[in-house]
Amino acid sequence: MKNFKKQYPTLNQYTYLNTAASGLLSEAVFEYRQEQDLDFLISGSVFKDQQGKILTGVREAVGRFFNCAPNRVALTPNFSYGFNTLMEGVEKSKKVLLFKNDYPSVNWAVESREFEVCYADIDENLENNVAEVVEKERPDIFAFSLVQWINGIIIDLEFLKELKSKYPEMLLFGDGTQYCGTEEFDFEASGLDVLGASTYKWMNAGYGNAFFLFKDHMEDKILPRSLGFNSLQGKYKPHEGSLIGKFEPGHQDTLNFGSLKVAIEEVEKIGIDKIAEQVQSLASEAKSLFEEHDLLEEAVLKRKIHSSIFNIKGGDAVFQKLKNNQIVCSQRGEGIRVSFHYFNTSEDIKKLLKVIK
């Protein structure tokens, strides 16, 4: 792919292997944000009057990108806000299946409420673990991250479709924060009933924006109580009790949500197919080299599919050495998490290994 250092200036000073923690701000998104603030500065409420049009455009862009009707796209400030709203609308008598040690914003939102909870292990047999627990416990809901935040293990999307086909009454709630933006995803054709994601990571949209997608039948499955003036405002919220309106009770930030639209347009210019090809190529190369240097846990090595997030062996000294060499990554779990997006290159992987060795 082309050199992205002009589009993402951060790449001029760092080897950036930390998209799993925070995506980069592009020149295009930055310029949009400057223009938005300038318009507000000189126009005040005249600018605010355009809010509905801006948010409609964002909703339509998200729906187009993930194949979901715009009237089933809710815009929230982050995943945690939206997911808590979702779980607050679920009857407390329901049983929920979680992964042990899944991302806290998923598990805590469930565990802090009165649901009966059961768990599946995250290891090389992840799909079989889920199937066995579902068969035994018959949960009403399975809530999970599509990609695990610590080690990058990704759940098989075909397995989810098969699971939904076998247990059609069980609702599947997915967190796509560590997934959305890495490859094409057709929500309508997926096994998910709900997909939520913060977009400051792999979508490179900046902070303060997230989305939730709903299948049609979810209108009758959950009853969130959130309500505000904005719950009834906008092209796609025509009636009181609108499901997406329950997720948008107050004024929306057009600066942040507009940034998401610009970020989506950036991805569309490059092509999500080209992005997926680069991400998968880097993930394959990294996994092979990390295996060669004995840097990965057994569960990851045994998986046939994997994301571009890896947790490699190394303690404080190695992490500090990477920082000293301008390699940006994160300490997570018992190792060092590195992650590769489409603006990364094979040279980034080689530099990482050179510094470690």
TrEMBL record:
Aminotransferase class V domain residues: 16-352
Coiled coil stretches, renumbered: 272-299
InterPro entries associated with the record: Aminotrans_V_dom (IPR000192), PyrdxlP-dep_Trfase (IPR015424), PyrdxlP-dep_Trfase_major (IPR015421), PyrdxlP-dep_Trfase_small (IPR015422)
Keyword line: Aminotransferase, Coiled coil, Pyridoxal phosphate, Transferase
UniProt cross-references to PANTHER family, sorted A to Z: BLR3095 PROTEIN, CYSTEINE DESULFURASE
Protein name (record): Aminotransferase class V-fold PLP-dependent enzyme
Gene Ontology molecular function: transaminase activity
Organism for this UniProt entry: Salinimicrobium gaetbulicola
Recorded superkingdom: Bacteria
Pfam assignment, any one: Aminotran_5
